[in-house]
Amino acid sequence: MWGLGAFLAFAIATTVLTQCIEAVDTSTWSAFMISCLLLAAVRQMTPLGLLGYARHRREHRVTVDASGIRTVTAWHTQETG
């Protein structure tokens, strides 16, 4: 998703710099807005998914630092960047 958002932002910026703002069509703007909304939704849904996972596994330890999220249970260890 980050790659798609970056590509669309680059495409829009290139078109605006080389031509004008009117040269960017509606479908490009809508694709850019949809990818931004999906990125925001993913950022909100990821913690909820991890919370559901933690409730299912009962006792666990979670460490959050600059490298990501690390979850340790009696069964296994999971790391999310």
Q: In a few lines, what is going on in this structure?
A:
This protein is of the alpha+beta class and 81 residues long.
Report what the structure shows.
The chain has 81 residues and is α+β, with helices and mostly antiparallel strands. It has 2 helices and 3 strands. A 3-stranded antiparallel beta sheet has the order 1-2-3, with no helix packed on it. Strand 1 and strand 2 (68-73) form a beta hairpin. Helix 1 (2-18) runs antiparallel to helix 2. It is elongated and about 60 Å long. The mean pLDDT is 79.
Query: CA-to-CA gap between the ends?
Result: 15 Å
> β content, as a range?
15-25%
Task: Report the uncertain regions.
Answer: none
Structural class: alpha+beta
Total number of helices: 2
Could you give the order of the helices and strands? Answer: HHEEE
Q: What is the overall shape?
A: elongated
Q: Give the strand order of the largest sheet, numbering strands 1, 2, ... along the chain.
A: 1-2-3
What is the share of helical residues? 55-70%
Q: What radius of gyration results from the CA coordinates?
A: 19 Å
